[in-house]
Amino acid sequence: MQTNRSILLRGRYATVGDYVALTKPRVMSLVVFTALVGLMVAPGDIDPFAGMAAILCIAAGAGAAGALNMWYDADIDAVMARTAMRPIPGGRVSRSEALVFGLTLGVCAVLALGTLLNLAAAALLAFTIFFYVVVYTMWLKRRTPQNIVIGGAAGALPPVIGWVAATGNGGIEPLILFLIIFLWTPPHFWALSLNLAGEYTRAGVPMLPVVAGRAETGRQILLYSVFLALISLLPWALGFAGAIYGAAAAILGAIMVFLSSQVHRSDDKQRRPARRLFAFSILYLVLLFGVLLMNATPYAQPR
Fold first, then answer.
1. Which of 53, 84, 198, 223 has a CA positioned 20 to 30 A from the CA of residue 160?
2. Distances in Å between the alpha carbon of 19 and those of 24, 64, 88, 92, 93?
């Protein structure tokens, strides 16, 4: 039935909006924001033009990864209600068009970042796209319930790319930012997948709720949230951020752990705790990185 609908809809011409949808703009917005924070809190001053170029390149790279993810996962998207009307299963863009679009956008993003900023940042962006598309999408997603845990490394790299774009090198600070997003990803995504376990089962994707059940997923969500709350305090503890950030991290972390404990205690009939945690997890990351941006400790070290 889905195939027939796609064939009927294929007569439509793709619009600019369809290609924008391929880039997963909502996901991209978080990627761009965390990359911006990494860029802005890095030591030294960066030329405004170079900073804007870096953010645009990172956004394009994230969009390319999203398009290539949709290209490969079109069969999965077609059988899940949440994704059935994406451009490819909706019949508005063909898989070959999405593939060409994603590859072109990715190559241009990497080349531009290397030309306008530095090769280290460009190499890191290329690795991030590769990791998300090949390691996560093509390899892990359909094979292991730890797909989100391992694959989450790709989503945790944008602030590191931003930092390296500004400085040309790494350090303990961008590693901490990486760890925060890496630990944030499982409770964020598992909270969503708890209420979509049936769809993932039909799609043949071994998400943790499908393989291990709700109780174990809730336990893992709580465990990751506790580690996240602790790691999020490191920028303050190491002097990378001020007391305002430390207080915000403590409060946001406590709320995250509390909501995760509610999910852990909930049963199969209770969907609201997982929805609340998913919604708050997005707000958590935005607020945490936003406060870090405003309360980061100035650095005097040269690039």
1. 223
2. 9, 10, 10, 9, 8
The Cα–Cα gap between 38 and 160 comes to 6
Residues 274 and 211 both lie in one domain: yes
Dihedral through CA 15, CA 16, CA 17, CA 19, nearest 10? 100
Residues 22 and 159 in one domain: yes
Which range marks the domain in which residue 277 is found? 171-303
Kindly state whether residues 178 and 301 are assigned to the same domain: yes
State which of 121, 143, 170 marks the end of a domain.
170
The pLDDT of 106-114, averaged and rounded, is 97
Coil, strand or helix at 297? coil
Full DSSP string of 203-256: HT---HHHHHHHHHHHHHHHHHHHHHHHHTTHHHHTTSB-HHHHHHHHHHHHHH
CB atoms within 10 A of CB 111: 13
Please, which residues have CB within 8 angstroms of residue 139's CB and are 6 or more apart in sequence?
Answer: none
What is the C-alpha separation between 87 and 64, in angstroms, rounded? Answer: 15
Which pLDDT score is estimated for 250?
Answer: 98
255 and 198 in a single domain? The answer is yes
